[in-house]
């Protein structure tokens, strides 16, 4: 019997649970941002590139970018490079 705390096996199948939704609290502002932007009709609000172009590499959906922008505004992340870093490391933004 070991008197140390046993760590997790490094060869485990997954690090996160089945869904990232399980890691976000029910009262997190990210959920409000998600619902709010999904209810908007961005074409009626003047967003010009709501429909994707048929040529070139596909871009990100404008709803996702608006959600990221609002998250950055609420959390005082002003730089697009810092927003990119947040999207790669912060579970709320994923």
Structural summary, described in words:
Helices cover 36% and strands 0% of the residues. The protein has 94 residues and is an all-alpha fold. The chain has a domain at 25-89. Helix 1 runs antiparallel to helix 2 (62-74). The mean pLDDT is 80.
Average pLDDT for all residues: 80
Q: What's the story with the biggest beta sheet?
A: none
Q: What characteristic shape results from the CA principal axes?
A: elongated
User: Topology as H/E string?
Assistant: HHH
Strands, total number:
0
Helix-and-strand structural type: mainly alpha
Helical region count?
3
First-last Cα distance: 40 Å
Radius of gyration, rounded?
Answer: 18 Å
> Which residues form runs of ≥5 with pLDDT under 50?
none
Helices and strands in order, then pairings?
Layout: H1 29-39, H2 62-74, H3 80-89
Helix pairs in contact: 1-2
Question: Can you tag this structure with a few keywords?
Answer:
mainly alpha; 94 residues; single chain; elongated; 36% helix
Concise structural overview:
This protein has helices at 29-39, 62-74, 80-89.
């Amino acid at each position: 019997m070991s008197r140390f705390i046993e760590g997790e096996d490094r060869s485990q199948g997954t690090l996160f649970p089945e869904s990232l939704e399980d890691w976000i609290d029910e009262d997190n502002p990210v959920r409000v941002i998600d619902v709010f932007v999904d209810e908007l009709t961005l074409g009626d609000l003047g967003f010009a590139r709501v429909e994707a172009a048929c040529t070139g590499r596909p871009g990100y959906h404008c709803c996702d970018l608006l959600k990221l922008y609002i998250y950055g505004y609420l959390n005082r992340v002003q730089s697009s490079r810092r927003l990119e870093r947040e999207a790669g490391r912060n579970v709320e933004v994923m």
